[in-house]
Amino acid sequence: MAWFFLAMAGLFEIGWAVGLKYSDGMSKPIPTLLTGASMVISIAFLAAALRELPLAAAYAVWTGIGTVGTALFGIFYLAEAATELRLLAIGLIVVGIVLLKLAPAS
Question: Is the dihedral of CA 74, 3, 61, 6 positive or negative?
Fold first, then answer.
């Protein structure tokens, strides 16, 4: 269940990172409220995951999911560049996440 909580924390991290973009410097009330809610939910799921998972792996996976998801959102929905180097970097982050998931905890 801890890995599920961590995946949910990562998805909500994507939500608040994207929300920051749409809140226009926190000047738009609805996107700002949704961003804040996503932050709280993300941290709550991360805290639940940390009951069972090692801190270093959980934090790296959480930020990795957020980084990859946010980068892909930018590429697909904000017309950000999808250069070979950016895609390679995203792929390396995904490999790192998988390896951290497979690595023994102790």
Answer: positive
Give tens-digit pLDDT for 53-94.
999 889 999 999 999 999 999 999 999 999 999 999 999 999
**Would you call 89 exposed, middle or buried from its count of C-beta atoms within 10 A (0-12, 13-18, 19+)?**
middle
Give the C-alpha separation, 64 to 68, whole Å. 6
Q: Domain range for residue 88? A: 2-102
How many independent structural domains does the chain possess? Answer: 1
Task: Return the H-helix or E-strand segment holding 78.
Answer: none
CA distance 49 to 71: 24
- Helices (runs of H) and strands (runs of E) counted in the chain: 4, 0
